[in-house]
């Protein structure tokens, strides 16, 4: 795989962000396989499409691309907050590619975040733009990249090393059972899985999970029986193959 952007493409553009957008989207379109179905190519979409940049002609999945020179921090700036919330509630929400490149315009890291890892708690509302701004009152958002669960950050290129399509598709298949279209249910499942992730041991008991009741209650203030909700979500995680029930209130992590 050629890891370098085609710099010639940028010569017709003035703004730096536009140059990067053109070069990075072209790079994905030319070099990347589909990380979801393993199809050899993904294609660039018309720039007039409101959110998605790329799509796979085989499985029909769509992808948005965010690129940055050097490391992404804890947050990734995105567009309008209301549009984002509407998007994550919709079944046409795109998957996200997070791409990092270096000074030589070489791709060093590429991560896939499947669309169903986007829940309200990873979207941060920014302050409205001041009245002096051209788009006064406009409210943008940040994706809280560091809050996205490990299971939802599938590494495709890591420090210049490219994993095989087969490997990545297998990893995706292990977690695709987490796909739930209803945003409220998805929020509970992702939040309870994030509690499971915080437990250090592979095996745990219900009491370990109940130590997160306050944290979950803050995220879901309308729920009046968080403990019951935890038990219900653990059952869903078991049915989806992410944890095992060992009996007597004991559980074991699988992924
Ligand atoms: Zn595909």
H and E order: HEEEEHEEEEEEHHEHHHEE
What is the share of helical residues? 25-40%
**Tell me about the biggest sheet?**
7 strands, mixed
DSSP summary: helix tally:
7
Give the averaged pLDDT, no decimals. 92
Task: Please tell me how large the radius of gyration is.
Answer: 20 Å
Instruction: Return residue spans where pLDDT drops below 50 for at least 5 consecutive residues.
Output: none
Secondary structural class = alpha+beta
What general outline do the C-alpha atoms trace? globular
- CATH third-level topology of the largest domain: PvuII Endonuclease, Chain A
Instruction: Tell me the name of the CATH homologous superfamily of the largest domain.
Output: Dam replacing family, catalytic PD-(D/E)XK domain
Number of strands: 13
Strand content: 15-25%
Number of domains: 2
Under the CATH scheme, which architecture of the largest domain would be assigned? 3-Layer(aba) Sandwich
Characterise this structure:
The chain has 255 residues and is an alpha+beta fold. The protein has two domains: 7-178, Dam replacing family, catalytic PD-(D/E)XK domain (PvuII Endonuclease, Chain A, 3-Layer(aba) Sandwich), CATH 3.40.210; 183-253, Winged helix-like DNA-binding domain superfamily/Winged helix DNA-binding domain (Arc Repressor Mutant, subunit A, Orthogonal Bundle), CATH 1.10.10. It is 30% helix and 23% strand. The protein has helices at residues 16-31, 81-88, 165-175, 183-198, 206-210, 213-219, 226-239, and strands spanning 43-44, 54-55, 62-69, 75-80, 95-101, 107-113, 123-125, 140-144, 154-158, 161-162, 203-205, 243-247, 250-253. Strands 1-2-3-5-6-9-10 form a seven-stranded mixed beta sheet. It has a three-stranded antiparallel beta sheet with strand order 4-8-7. Strand 5 (95-101) and strand 6 (107-113) form a beta hairpin. Helix 4 (183-198) crosses helix 7 (226-239). The longest helix has 16 residues, at 16-31. The two termini are 29 Å apart. The mean pLDDT is 92. It binds zinc ion. Zinc ion is lined by residues 34, 36-37, 39, 56, 58-59, 61.
